[in-house]
Amino acid sequence: MDKIAVIGGLGALSGADLFFKLLKNKSALKNQKNYHFIFEQQLYSQIESALLHEQDIKSRKFYTFTLCKNFEQKNVSKISLPCFASHSFIDEIQKETSITIVNIFEAIANYLSLKFEKGTKIGVLTSSFVKEFFLLKNIFKTMNWHIPQIKAS
Asked: How many CA atoms lie within 13 A of 45 on its CB side?
């Protein structure tokens, strides 16, 4: 059985939204005996904080690390981290856990390549932090896609 965990709490609704979509996924519904989905969200006191300071990222990193370690004890096989900003430190966290952390940007890029022709214009709604960290531009570059103009909200 594949145990897939979703870390919530870092984005206002992203974790719950992703978890709901996993539960409604046609493949998962057909093969319910093969999947066990876990959603965990702990109190994250800095949820209202803007991602402007190094301390904000350190706090997110510690929160994520703690949940990943909890998931190791539960024999989780994959972790989804739907918060875009948290992918700025995904490589650091991945080195500290034996569980595969799904790269949301690679998943999005894969979905886009399956659903849209190369050259299709898309919109991306994100934060200034994610835009400035070049997370989206990097994934589009690796796919040889045109890099869209990314606007932060």
From this structure: 3
CB-neighbour burial class of residue 33 (10 A; exposed 0-12, middle 13-18, buried 19+): exposed
Domain range annotation of the chain: 2-102, 112-153
Phi then psi dihedrals of residue 62, to 5 deg: -65, -45
> Whole-prediction pTM value?
0.77
> Does domain 2-102 bear CATH number 3.40.50.261?
no
Distance CA 128, CA 130 (A): 6
pLDDT at 74: 93
Q: CB–CB of 30/64 below 8 Å?
A: no
